[in-house]
Design goal:
Blueprint lengths: L13 H16 L12 E6 L5 H12 L3 E6 L11 H11 L2 E5 L3 H10 L4 E5 L5 H15 L6 E5 L4 H13 L2 E5 L8 H14 L3 E4 L2 H5 L4 E4 L11 H7 L7 H4 L7 E4 L11 H4 L6 H20 L5
Parallel strand pairs: 1-2, 1-3, 3-4, 5-6, 5-8, 6-7, 8-9
């Protein structure tokens, strides 16, 4: 059997996504049931980018299931001093049961999977953020139940979150609308893959430069920071480019009355979202943040714990 990895939601079937959600729900409801599921297992966690939610959720999740998570900063291991990724992957595979990597270049994660012999989890790259995307749709499934035919609207940079949400929408039977300014749209290679997924699933992908058009009749409105890690020098330019893209109360009013607001965090109130929306009654950002723990425990159980989905 080929080694399993989580590199992109695109690689998962709709059945696998649904299975992960069922497992995450069970983990959340019955945590004690899995208290020893990863006994004797170690997760090596490579961080080129700093993190709050990714590090804490994976570390705590592994511990709560009887395993051990090892934090590996790129400043502390030889990868940060020029050791080939292929060597790092082969060596770590002799020590740990799985690797989670939060990196800049997407190829770092794919190379870890290519040269290693243990499961690799994409904790975030500049291109994709599958753990967060799965968490978002798991959160939506808790709120709405069956997601088929629902609409999610993403307002902002066509970044790793936009790409992962595009892939996840088709797997969950949802339609997605993405509003991004010219020059900040989703990458064509990921759009082509997502459109193929959507066609197979009978769902739609709408791209627009008008954020208000995107959110009309949406069941969920979501956004992300305008300047991600590594783009700090572009912050001032992006602030101008994204003028009019703040998700505020008037924009939320265009969505369905029972629509919710999600944000992967950290949030910059007064930029991509107003404080009124971020901290308002439609916001589910902290339920969403908690669900990183449960969703990633499900991922760990599937990849490292031998649990079928």
């Amino acid at each position: 059997m080929a080694q399993r990895h989580l590199i992109s939601i695109h690689d998962l079937s709709a059945t696998q996504v649904a299975g992960l959600f069922r497992l995450a729900a069970d983990v959340k409801k019955n945590p004690g049931k899995y208290a020893t599921a990863l006994a004797g297992k170690t997760l090596g966690m490579i961080f080129e980018k700093s993190s709050t939610r990714t590090r804490v959720s994976f570390e705590v999740g592994t511990f709560q299931m009887g395993g051990h998570a090892l934090f590996l900063s790129s400043r502390d291991i030889q990868l940060g001093r020029g050791e080939p990724i292929s060597d790092t992957a082969r060596v770590l595979s002799r020590y740990v049961s799985g690797i989670m990597a939060r990196t800049f270049a997407h190829q770092t994660v794919t190379d870890l999977a290519k040269y290693g012999s243990v499961p690799v989890i994409n904790g975030l790259t500049d291109d994709l953020h599958p753990c967060q995307g799965l968490t978002d749709y798991f959160t939506l499934s808790e709120i709405f139940g069956d997601l088929r035919g629902k609409k999610i609207a993403y307002v902002g940079d066509g970044n790793n979150m936009a790409h992962s949400l595009m892939f996840g929408a088709a797997k969950c039977g949802m339609n997605i609308a993405i509003a991004s300014p010219l020059g900040y749209k989703v990458q064509e290679k990921y759009l082509a893959l997502a459109r193929a997924d959507a066609q197979a699933a009978g769902t739609t992908i709408e791209l627009t430069e008008d954020p208000r058009q995107a959110v009309v009749d949406a069941d969920c409105v979501t956004t992300d920071v305008w300047a991600s890690m590594g783009q700090e020098s572009e912050a001032a330019i992006r602030l101008q480019a994204f003028e009019g893209y703040e998700v505020d109360a008037s924009m939320m009013a265009l969505a369905k009355k029972d629509a919710i607001f999600l944000h992967c965090l950290p949030a910059h109130r007064g930029e991509e979202v107003s404080a009124e929306v971020c901290d308002g009654p439609q916001s589910r950002i902290f339920d969403q943040a908690e669900n990183r723990l449960h969703t990633q425990k499900a991922i760990l159980l599937w990849l490292m714990g031998g649990v079928e989905i």
